[in-house]
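Handout, page 2. Input:
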Amino acid sequence: MEPSRAEPPTFTMVGMRTPLVLVVVLALLGVGAYFTLLRDDDTAPPPPAPVTASTMPSAGSVGSEQGSVRSPVATTPPEGTTTPRSPSTNPSPAAPSPAATPPNVVLVVRDLAARGMVPAFRWQFRNSLAAQRGEGVAGRAELSLEPSAVGQLLVEADGLAPFVRDGLIVPTAPASAVTVDVFLAPAVAAAGITLHVRDVASKPVEHVRVDAFALAAEGAATTWQLGSSLWARRASDRDGRYVLPTLAAGEYGIRIVATDKDGSLLPFLPFLRTYTLTGDNGFVEDVPLEVGALLTIDLVDNAGLPYDPSRFGTATLSLRIPGGPSVQRKWIVRGELAEAIAIDVVPGLGKLQLAEAVTPGPWQFEVFVNGEPRVQRSLFLRAGMTNEERVQVP
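Output:
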């Protein structure tokens, strides 16, 4: 028997196949990665997503990638909206406000007896053009008056006698302000003038104008009411009782005329009286005002225009009782801003008005131009009214 041939052993290639498969897989992955790298290098990256205003970071904010700072992207606002402007770093200066008029008169007001500053006082500066009034406290007031004006200064305080200075000259720039030292003396409680003003029917006169005149030491002249008054006041009282401001010792003339509530004259004769005050005396008087007549005159030239003294010459006026003596009178021409006053002459261009009422009845009116007689007319003035006349000067 032939001996059997030994078969070669059969191996299952489990240990050999596994490494081979891994090698093949790794080779394939390597080739894929190679081609992937080539594609990333050669192909342009896709465009970035558009940035909108809602997703745009604010300027100066830090981004999430590499800590870089993203710049803001300018966007166009929707139509119809207004883009606010950022404040300018160099704003233009504001226009300067007009400078207030600097004071040119300083009042320092002291109590003569107490030697201290007067706590509160009133002042008035007036001349033929205008009047200014004001108040001061703690003994001081700074006044801004018309430069170069010349007028009368009045200072008053409760319980003290008033101070008056005539001919005060207001300085003009660049001159410095003038300081006026005022000393007010004590007023005597019982001194003064109280007037009860009524008409002849005993009805109180509710509105008046009072003028006080300082009279010369040698005695009161008959025409003191034609001069410049110490002060002039409008006052109102339902009972017609008027307590005049305190006056220092001296001699005074008082003139009262009735007015309406707006200050226009009423047809009552004026009250004129003189008083001598010694500092410790007083007067209380009943003042009946009689009915009078007011007079206004339209004085015109041959063309019917208001008479102009600068063209035709000075026009002298005369109003007197027929056959009686000539009496000086004040005439007024009122303008829009001021009034002109003169004695027996035409003070300016416009309608003439007699400064106070006269007795009703017959009068004689005359006009002289440069001394030559031009007009002579008889007038009859009716009581309790304003009589209007038109007079042509040839």
